[in-house]
Task: structure prediction
Amino acid sequence: MDNQDNYYKGLFYGAALGAAIGTVMGLLFAPDKGQETQRIITGKLRRALDMASDKAAEFYDVDENGEIYDNEARERSKEIIENARDEARKILNDANTILKEIKNQAKSGGGHTKSSDPHG
Result:
């Protein structure tokens, strides 16, 4: 989980750094001056941030405590847990069936007994 957290932190910092560098480059090479350049850059940054938050909303939800979690991971973990429960139920049912058979054999005389005669 730490690797995933570090990945998203790095992604966020990389995006922020890219936006900052883009802003500086835009100011350096802008054909317009002063307030017009600020207005253009501000508009582009707002659109970029809106687009980024929309994309992030596709992948993340915030729970009631304000914690972010991955929708895909949540859904996949639900599937895994449900599959594990189903498999555990099957194993328990098989184990119970085997135990009942063993108890029935023990009650009815033990079923097979070892003979000292190697031929039967």
Summary: The chain has a mean pLDDT of 72.
